[in-house]
Amino acid sequence: MSLAARDQRVIWHPYTQMQTAPAPLPVVRGAGAWLYLEDGTAILDAISSWWTNLHGHAHPHIAARVHEQLQTLEHVIFAGFTHEPAVALAEGLLQILPANQGKVFYSDNGSTAVEVALKMALQYHHNLGQPRPKILAFRDSYHGDTFGAMSVSSRGAFTAPFTALLFDVTYIDVPVPGREADVLAQAEAALAAGDIAAFIYEPLLLGTAGMVTYEPAVLDQLMRLCRAHGTLCIADEVLTGFGRTGRLFASHYLQEQPDMVCLSKGLTGGTMALGVTTCSKGVYNAFLSADRSRTLFHGHSYTANPIACAAGLASLELLLADACQEGIQHIAQRHSQTAAAFEQLPGVRSCRTLGTMLAVELAVPGEGTSYFSGLRDQFYNLALRRGVLLRPLGNIVYALPPYCITDDELDRVYAVLHELRELVLETVPLA
Questions:
Q1: 103 annotated ligand binder
Q2: Active site residue 407
Q3: Is there a binding annotation on residue 29?
Q4: What CATH class has 63-320?
């Protein structure tokens, strides 16, 4: 029996309607930017396997570090114990994060990193004797699939079955160019009530919203407003961290510094699950007390897993090397050149780039822009037939490749984007 057939007998896949979904593609190995199927088919991973894979699949440096760690310590309870990989990774992260970050709290993934930050923010005000029950967030944001993370994300089809159980959130619009003044006014009105504990945001790039970008200046202004009203700022850098926006963190484009930062995805170079929430010393100090009830009561069985931390350290070493930083800038340059050319073509509504992200918004009217659009499935399947993995967000097709991708491989991705544009021209009459 094939791997795909065995899978269909026992597995329930994420974000998948199992009754209508085709058989999953059976991956047997990965190398560099490529995935290899059971039948030998090669697929170029142009989305870094859900934005996680920074340096290429099965990277030997990370594999060697993981192997070495497995011979020494696979796991230990992290309450009352510590180990070298966790301490070294925390030290390394604090050296490159915004300068005000002082402490590292480990968890399991991006959603739990957000949950930790939300609990930190709410309990911070509680510990100060000034409880604040609300969170401020962008209307089209996404922060994860656990209940707190869903609560601060955009409400829609994905969260509809759980609406009655999600906590109340105050939303403001995304400050895209031309809307900055309106959004600042919305934020000022929301913050004036004095009951908002924290503002959580995806800095400069909202991924699942359609790779929507906005400018650092307006985020600085929003953060200054929060500071003036005693509201903490949480930077969700799960997507934007580790070079994705062209700098090590999107927060490095800003003058203001966040009170907390959420990290995952690229944290281990796509090797295995690990989450991190960092915070300023001011936040941390609000939990220090002889009163044990002021403790942050949060933890996971696999908190600071040594193997995951070893993978994170190895990925960080690769990321900070000159070759990787040059690769990031080269991808960004290629994306910018491609976007400038695409914007002049029929069938293209707009293009956006930020660091290693390129998004092409195809001119599809009406329901074609929906995540549930059949045209989106056509885009996905056509790309696969050309040997490229893309996951379009409705009519928005994006590339977010691993940093090891070559010029020839980028050209292959761009060629598929051209073919998708031509499909739109054939399918959708232009006005």
A1: no
A2: no
A3: no
A4: alpha beta
